[in-house]
Amino acid sequence: MVSVVLPVHDGAATLGRAIASVAAQTLNDWELVVVDDGSTDETPGIVAHWQRKDPRIRSCRLPRQGIVAALNAGLAAARAPLLARLDADDVSHPERLAEQAAFLNAPENAAIGLAGCQVEFGGDRRTAAGYALHVDWTNALVTPEAIALNRFVESPFAHPSVMFRRELVERLGGYRDGDFPEDYELWLRWLDAGVRMAKVPRALLTWHDPPGRLSRTAARYAPDAFFRLKAPWIARELRRNEVSRGARSVWIWGAGRPTRKRAAHLGAHGVTIAGYIDVDAKKATPALGGRGVPVVTPENLPAPEHAFVLGYVSARGARDLIRAALLARGYREGGDFLLCA
Q1: Per residue in 241-251, is it b (16+ CB within 10 Å) or e — as a string?
Q2: pLDDT digits (tens, 9 = 90+) for 269-284
Q3: Domain range for residue 110?
Q4: Rounded to an integer, what distance in angstroms lies between the CA atom of residue 314 and that of residue 262?
Q5: Hey, how many other C-beta atoms are within 10 angstroms of the C-beta on 214?
Q6: Which of 197, 280, 275, 269 is nearest to 237 (CA)?
């Protein structure tokens, strides 16, 4: 019923724990595909040990090629109609596969293509407070509507927590390599194609946060890579809302230098910024940088029939304030504004 794809490179310290969590699943109809991406530690021996214990565990060994090649090799080797992800440093709770498979196989969820789950944060909330808050944020996004509306803020899923239908890979393609986070690119591409995504509203995975996690060390997961990746998909969504036809112009909430830098990526995809919005009246100006781009306070923002607002302020609590202010002015989230940071 389910193929679990687990790519690993030099994961001997935690791999046995991850495999054991699959072996302990209450759902018995699974296979585990371990893709060894050129490990030089004891990883091959650990995989072989588990293969001797359980014939449902399969493996392939690649020369070192990176996470994307390993993921796609795993997808190609997997045989089940439902494909689940797991990383070598994470732990699936015993009911995980059963609950996600039941969710996707339920008749009322036939239109759902991908089901994640809530996750337990496996790090130290004191020393990694920002990451812990990110986990809390992803856990709050459960319904397809919440996930779609917040998809441009950050990646709405913990990558090793997802399960999706094989036909999505066959129809829309798997992971792509580039200077961007490969999982987030996949979610944005599939969401843009109309795939509905949801979560089982229960913590079914412990998401560990080791210092060597790729999202902490690789340039493709740097903050600017996320904003660069989001830009073309935001531009496509604007065109969907007929913003590019001239009836409405694009306004950016936030006039500080970091916000302008994030929003500047939109220009490469044909988006013209009409102006900026800032709560600080001292920043209001008829022009910004001599280019005739105004900065206005929220009360001077054009009405929704004339403007589409993108919120690019990432300060803690800013999203809630921006959302509340725009809703109070009659803007509809998704139809008249999107939060993008």
Answers
A1: eebbeeebebb
A2: 999 999 999 999 999 9
A3: 2-221
A4: 10
A5: 15
A6: 269
Give the number of C-alpha atoms closer than 13 A to the C-alpha of residue 125, restricted to the C-beta side: 7
Interacting residues of 228 by C-beta distance below 8 A, sequence separation 6+: 179, 180, 265
Contacts of residue 317, defined as CB under 8 A and 6 or more positions apart, other chains included, come to none
Report the first-to-last Cα separation within the chain, whole angstroms.
37
Domain-terminating residue out of 175, 190, 221? 221
Please tell me the total count of domains within the chain. Answer: 2
Strand pairing of 91-92 and 112-121?
A: unpaired
pLDDT band at 53 (very low <50, low <70, confident <90, very high): very high
User: Coil, helix or strand for 139?
Assistant: helix
200 and 229 fall within a common domain: no
Q: What is the pLDDT of residues 231-249, one digit of tens each?
A: 999 999 999 887 755 679 9
